[in-house]
Amino acid sequence: MLPRKSIIPEDFAFSPALVSPIPRKPVFRDRVNKARFIAKSGACNLSHKNIREQGRFLQDVVTTLVDLKWRFTLVIFSMTFLCSWLLFAMFWWLVAFAHGDLDTNRKPGVEQCFTNVNSFTSAFLFSIEVQVTIGFGGRMITEQCPTAITVLILQNIIGLIINAVMLGCIFMKTAQSHRRAETLIFSRYAVITVRNNRLCFMIRVGDLRKSMIINAVVRLQVVRKTTTPEGEIIPIHQIDVQTESAVAGNSIFLLAPLIICHVIDKDSPLYDLSAMELQCSDLEVIVILEGVVETTGISTQARTSYVNEEIQWGHRFVPIVTEEEGVYSVDYSKFGNTVKVATPRCSARELDEKPSILIQTLQKSELSHQNSLRKRNSMRRNNSMRKSNSMRRNNSALAVPKVQFLTPEGGPNLAVT
Fold first, then answer.
1. Where exactly are the transmembrane stretches of this chain (predicted)?
2. How far is 213 from 288, CA to CA, in rounded Å?
3. How many Cβ atoms are within 10 Å of 354's Cβ, its own excluded?
4. What pLDDT, in 10s, does the model give residues 383-396?
5. Is the pTM of this model over 0.70?
6. Does the domain at residues 35-39+180-347 carry the CATH identifier 2.60.120.200?
7. Has domain 68-174 been given CATH number 1.10.287.70?
């Protein structure tokens, strides 16, 4: 009886070929559509579920109010003042009822605690006048009621606290840092090309405002699903990626749009990634721009991400900064435009092991460029020759023909008409 074939593929079997130093050819698989971790607008694609300790949010009420949406913030703002007015209106009504101001059959010589407070509606109006210090003059407290004076002091203190907290939350919500991040833009596509004989991952960042971002720093992270040697699956594995500015230890001067470059070296998570493997990978490159707003001094952060469909291999950003009449001009209509350049399709590891690949690629690009120039010159010559031939034909067609007349003697007589 023949042995049954194992269900484990031969590529994954423990054979000597796997432990040999010879690298195995990459196996390309169909990429499964994966949800991106950071949206292009910078919003985090993450939902929190089954949070049991909801009381932690009430321990930081100010941050909770600032993080709420505007409609909830305005509802809480209105309900806080309305409830405080109703609560103290009840206190004023009880004080007036206990003192006998609501009794219509009271004696004429007895002093009232309030003037013109005869119902709950008038007590509610009096509560509003006290807390917002309107004071129309028709209602007031007399010196015959110490309890009313105590309630007046208490309502003023609580009203000031409510005003400070709610107005502070509204101010913090209108001056949030992410509002400044709306004018920090990123290129729609990232590119991978050769710069200084090294494969580089590059993006372009810019600031639309004239007020600058101080101490601006750009950080890159690669997010991908990984499996540890122990078999642990990490769905969101964040790997820091070094940029040229980070290596130098200096912040960028974001006066004009800049190209952020990451050299794909042996420490890069993109070191073993080729152009074909990039199409099948599930990686996501997150870009984080942080800095301090010059006008307000508030720290701000702008984020975006690039998946494999948004990374163009073998492209380069076109220049957009030009000098016009002594002034540098930035054309933002070309902010995300790229041009195709000669770039090896292999990974950075293969390019380091075989530097001749880059030389051959550049030579082929130079030959193709020369051939294209020759074709353009030949086409121009052909077009010029065709134009000259057509002009000659037109001139010959417009020339006056010669007519021959015969004289009576039979001799030819040429005449031009």
1. 74-95, 148-171
2. 14
3. 13
4. 777 777 677 666 66
5. no
6. no
7. yes
